[in-house]
Write a structure and sequence with these properties.
The protein is α/β, with parallel strands linked by helices. Helix content is 44%, strand content 20%. The protein has 19 helices and 20 strands. Strands 16-13-17-20-18-19 form a six-stranded mixed sheet, sandwiched between helices. Helix 7 packs parallel to helix 10 and helix 7 packs parallel to helix 11. The protein is elongated, with a radius of gyration of 28 Å. The two termini are 34 Å apart. Bound molecules: zinc ion.
């Protein structure tokens, strides 16, 4: 008997432990370090236990290295960095760890000196240098080294973001990256290369200010991925080529080194390279994460490049979740009216505020209406089914003939996943009462259509009474509407915890 109790206690503790483990979402891997050398080495360690071939580039001049990602990928080896005069000791150690037999240096002796070549040969490594009179020529020579391809990629040779955003896709498919000159045009040697290869499609990364329209008109079957910023270009490339990936690489769009060395690993993992600001994911990139459903992230660089705030955001419980926000009523159906207020207007406003909080946590939100329109109840339920939603939250305000009735209540239904729905209702109710300072009328079961027929955890929230003077004052106030939205949001977050 005693043993049985102990066993069940053990099982209980084990399940608690598992629950705790599961609640701390861990969607991110950070490949960071003190500096870009560390990052490149950590990328290398993550991607390769050994590698026959390593590509080596200068640590602070991106010109020669911009096109090197696809070359490294083709050789199934990492791209490592060195200072120009002598092989950076940490990089040397990493080359030894990889047991590399070949090193391909990209760039001339000013980028990576002859001393380094000697040092590598002294390590019994065979060395090949790919150089040229300009970065455009280096890129052409890298392309030739990779071999003839049916598609090529063109990017700005004098700024790095667009080339690095497209690098994982180019690398994965074996397409070389060719570069424009400082006038954003192609050198004749590059055009000749494209012609001689009978290229069938030219993919241009970046807008006309990076790769000119003249280039666009002179290459075979061009396809351009532009954008208003480097961030947008990276998002547009992800949207075009990495729709079916579940993971993404995230890096600071202002520095080249981490994106450069990380691009080879991103290619290996079939992940896009998303560029962000150290403490901000711009709107288009955020939408790309949400709409493509990325739920695993590799962060390139330390917390100065990509802040811990961003990492926490990517680690959030709502990442990858789809949530229906259902503002009640609308159009010809005003819902409850009273104290010069209409329910349909209040709940749409609160719902929009909930929507923006959820999106900021990288959840995908489906609004059953965004404007003052009438939507039938079955259509609201269908929206959730269509989106294969994880949660359904219907937002209403209450009314009663007796104006003294007041307070907050949240409903669930037991038809499908009653326990989960009830738990969600309790979390939201608790937060709403606290935030709105309303009378706690509790969590109740009811057969409202949208919660009875939604198969996922679903609740219907009655924020407060429009028919009560005190409650109505709060419902009329923008700051209380925000409080209500924050509370609903926090309730959802707590439910996931
Ligand atoms: Zn209602």
């Amino acid at each position: 008997m005693k043993k049985k109790i102990l066993t069940s206690l053990f099982v209980l503790m084990l399940s608690l432990f598992v629950a705790v483990q599961a609640s701390a979402a861990n969607n991110t891997t950070r490949l960071g370090g003190q500096d870009r050398f560390d990052v490149s080495i950590n990328v290398s360690k993550e991607g390769w236990s050994t590698a026959n071939t390593v590509v080596l580039a200068n640590w602070d001049a991106f010109g020669d290295a911009l096109a090197a990602g696809p070359l490294a990928y083709k050789n199934n080896g990492p791209l490592l960095l060195t200072k120009a005069d002598s092989l950076t000791p940490r990089t040397k150690k990493e080359i030894q760890r990889l047991k590399a037999k070949n090193v391909i240096i990209v760039g001339g002796p000013i980028s990576v000196s002859e001393n380094i070549v000697k040092e590598l040969r002294g390590m019994n490594i065979s060395v090949k240098r790919i150089s040229g009179n300009s970065r455009m020529e280096v890129a052409n020579n890298i392309a030739k080294e990779m071999g003839k391809a049916s598609r090529v990629v063109i990017a700005d040779g004098f700024n790095f973001p667009d080339a690095l955003s497209i690098a994982p896709w180019a690398a994965r498919n074996g397409y070389p990256i060719l570069l424009t000159n400082n006038k954003h045009n192609l050198e004749s040697s590059t055009l000749n290369l494209i012609k001689s290869w009978n290229v069938t499609q030219t993919v241009i990364s970046g807008g006309p200010l990076s790769v000119s329209d003249q280039v666009y008109k002179s290459v075979p079957n061009p396809k351009r991925y532009g954008g208003n910023s480097r961030y947008e270009v990276s998002a547009n490339i992800a949207n075009a080529y990495f729709k079916n990936s579940s993971q993404a690489f995230v890096t600071n769009g202002q520095v080249f080194a981490d994106a450069l060395t990380g691009s080879v690993l991103a290619a290996k993992k079939n992940a896009p390279m998303l560029l962000i600001q150290p403490n901000n994911i711009t709107g288009t990139v955020q939408n790309s994460i949400i709409n493509n459903g990325y739920s695993k992230f590799t962060i390139l660089g330390g917390p100065v490049s990509v802040s811990n705030n961003i990492q926490n955001k990517l680690n959030g419980d709502l990442v990858g979740q789809t949530i229906v926000v259902d503002p009640g009523h609308g159009g010809k159906d005003p819902g409850a009216v009273g104290n010069s207020l209409a329910e349909k207007e209040i709940v749409l406003d609160v719902s929009k505020r909930v929507n923006s909080k959820l999106k900021d946590s990288l959840a995908k939100v489906v609004m059953t209406r965004n404007t003052d329109t009438f939507v039938e109840l079955p259509d609201r339920v269908k929206e959730g089914e269509k989106a294969n939603a994880d949660l359904f939250v219907s937002i209403h305000v209450n009314s009663f003939t007796d104006p003294s009735a007041n307070g907050t209540e949240t409903y669930y239904n037991s038809q499908y996943v009653g326990a989960e729905s009830k738990a969600l209702a309790q979390e939201i109710q608790k937060e709403l009462v606290k935030a709105m300072k309303t009378n706690d009328r509790g969590v109740k079961e009811a057969g409202f259509y949208v919660i009875k027929n939604s198969k996922m955890p679903s609740v219907l929230v009655e924020i407060a009474f429009i028919s009560n003077t005190n409650d109505a004052k709060k419902l009329a106030s923008a700051s209380y509407r925000q409080k209500a939205a924050d509370a609903i949001y926090t309730g959802i977050v707590n439910y996931y915890k």
